[in-house]
């Protein structure tokens, strides 16, 4: 009995827990770090199309908020004026399904030394390239030191990561003339796997006495014999015609039989 109750409890927890959906959060511009007061557009998409019935939500360590309480709804977009040091966003539907969460960092320093690291907010695919830059509040990119999981490179105007792998995941930040960007984590995801159908089966070639075998080629399939059945559009009229003809023959036979019978009866009366 206790085991049965435990299994029921586990099932209830699994059914009530939020599940991750194929719907994802779109972020524009696709930057994980922004300056305070920057506007960011967020939307829920499914394979590039707007996901109906999904809402952009936010958490800053407290209660969950819906877009409309913290941003402006413009069509399918939620436009947010970022101000808190760190804000987390995701998409959610009425049944509790959720997309992956995206955290954005805000550079609140208003001095000329303030910098941000231009790093993607959304996960990048393995095998792709990413360019990291250090940008000031006035929009200029500057030479900087790039700190990658505890090691620094530079100073240089940008840092390029080619053919990204899972090993490139980790924390990144940058510094320039005393200014330091927030620290952000680069996320890497494998592209979706495409399943191809298996190749057609070829029979093994006949054994030969030589060491070289000709390349395998599947013989062409023989053409299918022409159908001897009449087209389906002619079957119904033909069957109907045959039925009508058979009925006509039966009626004529019955009439002739009756006439012969009546004729025979009349002849017998005359002879009497």
Shape: elongated
The CATH topology label of the domain at 19-108 is Immunoglobulin-like
Radius of gyration: 40 Å
State the name of the first-level CATH class of the domain at 19-108. Answer: Mainly Beta
- What class do helices, strands and sheet pairing give? alpha+beta
Percent helix, as a range, is 10-25%
* Main beta-sheet annotation: 5 strands, antiparallel
Assigned CATH superfamily of the domain at 19-108:
Immunoglobulins
Low-pLDDT regions? 1-20, 232-236, 267-272
> From N to C, what is the helix and strand string?
HEEEEEEEEEEEEEEEEEEEEEH
CATH architecture term of the domain at 19-108:
Sandwich
How many separate helices? 2
Distance between the amino and carboxyl termini: 104 Å
Strands, count: 21
Classify the beta-strand content into a percent band: 25-35%
The average pLDDT score comes to 77
Topology diagram in text:
Elements: H1 2-16, E1 24-28, E2 33-35, E3 39-46, E4 49-50, E5 54-59, E6 65-66, E7 72-74, E8 77-81, E9 86-93, E10 102-107, E11 115-118, E12 124-125, E13 130-136, E14 141-142, E15 144-148, E16 151-156, E17 158-161, E18 170-176, E19 179-180, E20 184-186, E21 188-189, H2 232-271
Parallel strand pairs: 2-10, 12-21
Antiparallel strand pairs: 1-3, 3-4, 3-8, 5-6, 5-9, 7-8, 9-10, 11-13, 13-14, 13-17, 15-16, 15-18, 18-19, 18-20
